[in-house]
């Protein structure tokens, strides 16, 4: 077997295919997900089924969303897993996850995500936070670091603010490159995301919160006075108790929300 062919499938770079190939790591991921027969489980990018198989063994059923037509076909016709899977062949970034809600059972979503699209995919998933119990994702370790970073650090950015706005986030497993086939060039990590309750998410408009983050972090070396000048004046920042001579990375999540709500109330 060459590096690129795994279980008879040639890994497609454009789909971010790096297949898990380490039983101990797979075991740890499955333990973190803790699948039960009553769970409403969804896997993004099941690929060749490295996580799918042990999860379906425990849960008996599973919905999967896979972009690669060949891999989706393989899963549909898989002798053991096939009958237990509901396979959606398509792009998870366009998938309406709320369509999978049955009665009151919230979704438990997991996946070893394609690294080339992980950030937009996470932003898409955050939109379904109210329908989700928890999520477990394998990502580039650097992305996980950014998601959990706090203020006053270089890793703190829009992804940190928006992740922590929607979810409680905690890294659970570190995964080195040699656990995949083909091995990626970067370290990986699994993150657990538990959506916050709607009453904990106090932004009046998440669109405005996102815009504030974009403006502030696009010019992260600049002071807030300059980077946010299109949105509010330094006097208006002072009224919110925010020092306009600080930079975006010095603001807390609560302060980002305060700015967004001020704009919602005063500039709409
Ligand atoms: N879960 C498998 C594993 O751990 O071995 C495969 C993980 S691989 C890193 C990413 C998987 O996501 C591939 O199967 C790839 O085809 C699929 N994929 C890539 N882009 C996708 C998208 N936009 N929507 C759904 N699946 C996607």
From TrEMBL:
<dbReference type="InterPro" id="IPR029063">
    <property type="entry name" value="SAM-dependent_MTases_sf"/>
</dbReference>
<feature type="binding site">
    <location>
        <position position="66"/>
    </location>
    <ligand>
        <name>S-adenosyl-L-methionine</name>
    </ligand>
</feature>
<dbReference type="InterPro" id="IPR011530">
    <property type="entry name" value="rRNA_adenine_dimethylase"/>
</dbReference>
<dbReference type="InterPro" id="IPR020598">
    <property type="entry name" value="rRNA_Ade_methylase_Trfase_N"/>
</dbReference>
<dbReference type="InterPro" id="IPR023165">
    <property type="entry name" value="rRNA_Ade_diMease-like_C"/>
</dbReference>
<keyword id="KW-0489">Methyltransferase</keyword>
<feature type="binding site">
    <location>
        <position position="20"/>
    </location>
    <ligand>
        <name>S-adenosyl-L-methionine</name>
    </ligand>
</feature>
<protein>
    <recommendedName>
        <fullName>Ribosomal RNA small subunit methyltransferase A</fullName>
        <ecNumber>2.1.1.182</ecNumber>
    </recommendedName>
</protein>
<comment type="function">
    <text>Specifically dimethylates two adjacent adenosines (A1518 and A1519) in the loop of a conserved hairpin near the 3'-end of 16S rRNA in the 30S particle. May play a critical role in biogenesis of 30S subunits.</text>
</comment>
<feature type="binding site">
    <location>
        <position position="18"/>
    </location>
    <ligand>
        <name>S-adenosyl-L-methionine</name>
    </ligand>
</feature>
<comment type="similarity">
    <text>Belongs to the class I-like SAM-binding methyltransferase superfamily. rRNA adenine N(6)-methyltransferase family. RsmA subfamily.</text>
</comment>
<keyword id="KW-0694">RNA-binding</keyword>
<feature type="binding site">
    <location>
        <position position="91"/>
    </location>
    <ligand>
        <name>S-adenosyl-L-methionine</name>
    </ligand>
</feature>
<feature type="binding site">
    <location>
        <position position="45"/>
    </location>
    <ligand>
        <name>S-adenosyl-L-methionine</name>
    </ligand>
</feature>
<dbReference type="InterPro" id="IPR020596">
    <property type="entry name" value="rRNA_Ade_Mease_Trfase_CS"/>
</dbReference>
<keyword id="KW-0698">rRNA processing</keyword>
<keyword id="KW-0808">Transferase</keyword>
<dbReference type="InterPro" id="IPR001737">
    <property type="entry name" value="KsgA/Erm"/>
</dbReference>
<feature type="domain" description="Ribosomal RNA adenine methylase transferase N-terminal">
    <location>
        <begin position="25"/>
        <end position="197"/>
    </location>
</feature>
<keyword id="KW-0949">S-adenosyl-L-methionine</keyword>
<dbReference type="GO" id="GO:0005829">
    <property type="term" value="C:cytosol"/>
</dbReference>
<dbReference type="GO" id="GO:0003723">
    <property type="term" value="F:RNA binding"/>
</dbReference>
<keyword id="KW-0963">Cytoplasm</keyword>
<feature type="binding site">
    <location>
        <position position="112"/>
    </location>
    <ligand>
        <name>S-adenosyl-L-methionine</name>
    </ligand>
</feature>
<dbReference type="GO" id="GO:0052908">
    <property type="term" value="F:16S rRNA (adenine(1518)-N(6)/adenine(1519)-N(6))-dimethyltransferase activity"/>
</dbReference>
<dbReference type="Pfam" id="PF00398">
    <property type="entry name" value="RrnaAD"/>
</dbReference>
């Amino acid at each position: 077997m060459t590096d690129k062919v795994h279980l008879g499938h040639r890994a497609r770079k454009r789909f971010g295919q790096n297949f898990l190939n380490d039983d101990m790591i797979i075991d740890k991921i499955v333990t973190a997900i803790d699948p039960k027969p009553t769970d409403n489980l969804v896997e993004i990018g099941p690929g060749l089924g490295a996580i799918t198989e042990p999860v379906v063994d425990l849960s008996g059923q599973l919905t999967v969303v896979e972009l690669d037509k060949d891999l989706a076909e393989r899963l549909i016709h898989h002798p053991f897993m096939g009958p237990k899977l509901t396979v959606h062949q398509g792009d998870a970034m366009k998938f309406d996850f709320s369509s999978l809600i049955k009665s009151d059972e919230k979704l438990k979503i997991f996946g070893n995500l394609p690294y080339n699209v992980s950030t937009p995919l996470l932003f898409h998933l955050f939109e379904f936070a109210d329908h989700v119990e928890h999520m477990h994702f394998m990502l580039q370790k650097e992305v996980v670091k950014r998601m959990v970073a706090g203020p006053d650090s270089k890793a703190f950015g829009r992804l940190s603010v928006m992740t922590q706005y929607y979810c409680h986030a905690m890294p659970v497993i570190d995964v080195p490159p040699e656990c995949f086939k083909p091995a990626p060039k970067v370290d990986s990590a699994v993150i657990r995301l538990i959506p916050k309750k709607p009453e904990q998410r106090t932004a009046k408009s998440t669109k405005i919160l996102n815009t504030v983050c974009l403006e502030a972090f696009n010019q992260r070396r600049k002071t807030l006075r300059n980077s946010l000048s299109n949105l509010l004046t330094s006097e208006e920042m002072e009224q919110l108790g925010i020092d306009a001579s600080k930079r975006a990375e010095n603001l807390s999540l609560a302060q980002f929300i305060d700015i967004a709500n001020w704009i919602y109330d005063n500039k709409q």
